What does this fold into?
Amino acid sequence: MKLLVSTLLKLVAIITLKFLKAALEKDLFSVNIFWVHVITLLQFLLLAWLLVTPLLFWWRTSNHRRKEITALAITVLLFIVSEAGLYYHFKNPALYGYRITKVLQDVYVASAFPTITVQPGKAEYNDALFYKLLPHANFWFECAEYKVSYSTNSAGLRDDESSLQKPSLIFLGDSFTMGYGVQQDSAYPQQVERLTGLKTLNAAISSYGTARELTLLQQLDTSNLQYVFIQYCSNDEEENAAYIKNSFKYKPPSIKFYQQMQLVERWQKQYFPLKNAALFLKYWSNSIKAKQYANQSPKAYYNPLIIADTAIHNFINILSKTNWSAKKYKLVVLHNDPFITGNDPFIDICKKMQQSDINLKNLGAIDFINVNTTLLKEDYYHFDNHTNNSGNRKVASAIVAYLKKAGINSGTQ
It folds into this structure.
């Protein structure tokens, strides 16, 4: 009878927490995101406690309270072991089955993946571009897989001050080009500068789409520019679509929205004991309910993303609004995305659209480089998704090969 009563009480508590969490989830742009994670942990602890308690029926003692406390202790111990295992795995990643690997990545992104552009002391609101890195800043940026230093110039770009004056090459892009998880001199724009001797400006900023990248270009010194390299990533699409819908004008969100993003970043990533174990159970159960990640081999984790033709057309459409043939410099398009290896259809689709649409004829002067042909899964961080040192080195080599083929010899300015 006591077991039945305790079971009912636990079920009532789980259901009550479910309703409380649903109420909090109506506004996740606040501290609520933290309490949603806490409630998720309590729900799974109660559920596990409920399941473990009947397993102690063989214990020949009439003291029901002792059984309950022992069951709770076993439950908490299981969660502690799971939390320790997850911590170890994040520090020493390995490829397991597809579902487990994807769920682990979901946990990492929700709990430990840092967003540099909303972290105080690293970035700030910008009324033209939404956000930029702080100018003249020096700071460390770290997560489970790396710890790297950042140094910015007066324009809030991850490069030195001299690179702002009369660069020969400018690189536009997002976190891949900025060198998210590598040291500054290991980002591929800086490697290209060393290998060619050409003054190079790394003007990439994390999470920028094509619209902001081209807006930023207008603010830079192009008087001695020979080449602009612009990197596309699949997460550019939301920004690009909004830019086109707004008559090809970028409208940054308000400073209030930026402050809300900072608040969410702070509380979503705020750690508390057993948080990762609870998130793992959450994403694992969600994947089963939604039938996600099933019947896939571990290798599928590294399959290239399939980018919708509409997204690629929007990218090309934005580029076509500039008459690149009239520019003194050349525009070169490249593509970086999580876990792109080998053959990359993105470049071929771009070229076909360029040739088939009469409205895109301004793109006749644009070149395309497939920088992904030599990339392997070992060239990416396991959870972070970005190219690591070897990946950046290979991308730099592909760009240098293009420049040499174009007649740009090492050491020329």
